[in-house]
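Sample entry follows:

_____
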Amino acid sequence: MAAITIGVPVYNEEVLLERALEALRTQPFTDVEILIYDNASTDATPEIAQRFVNSDSRFRYFRQSENRGALLNFNDVLNAATSSYFLWRACDDQVEPDFVGKLYAALEANPDKLMAGARVVSCDLDGAHPRTFPVPQVGLGTGPLTRWKLLFHSHPSWIYCLFRREPLVERMRTVVTRYRHQWAADHLTLFPYLFDNTALGVDTVTFNQVLRRVRPGGAKRRPRVEAELALMEDLRRRFLAVLSDDLAQRKIGGVSGLFYRWMLWAYTGKRVYKFRKVIRRRFKRDVLGIAEKGGLVSQ
């Protein structure tokens, strides 16, 4: 059994897949299995993946019979893993040469931590507009300031860092069965790690998040589709309901409990949809009579 399973959920990634898989193949830390989960791609993704499977026994390829949506495909590749450690890999993001090994060493040295996150550098696909997000500097406890820093200053790209697999499987089961939507699912997955301070920030390791404001080959970016108001409100309710249950399990009462309930409401607004945005949309619809445009619908 490999020490780490790397899950690569893909859909129509023929432009970037080879570069991503080659970066994994050449990582100095070699005790890995790499599972490519294809969400029924219609381009050359299967052929590219198969070339790596044929040349390196650490690679395995699985093709979904139909597109199951991003969230279920991410969950499927996690459930197929057998290693003690797990990380997801996105095709467009980039990591430094020993990204996997450094995070593995950090978690091995800190058995009380359940995941390891890195410093994040965000840029466009062409490398323009770089922005650095350092690891939040916190102590060992779980006081309000520590929790606030981790929840509001950690980067969502930590979802692509290293986890101990079994707790992640349990958390994803909650996200998939109760939240049931890919929007903000990364934040909901990360929440208990951040709230309980079981996430280890490793500032000496860099994860390069690539934002596809520039499309490969000169392709134009797809126009943004605004979510329907009903979906926005429903996702806020679902997200907050899961967080409220998380808080209830920790049995925090009194003034601290009240403060944390407010913190969860604020976290929902930051990570899902801002409350003022929902109110503004509702005002336009109910008071001004402006009809909702067609958009994303609930899953």
Remarks:
- The two ends are 36 Å apart (CA to CA).
- The mean pLDDT is 92.
- Residues 229-249 form the longest helix (21 residues).
- The chain is about 45% helix and 20% strand.
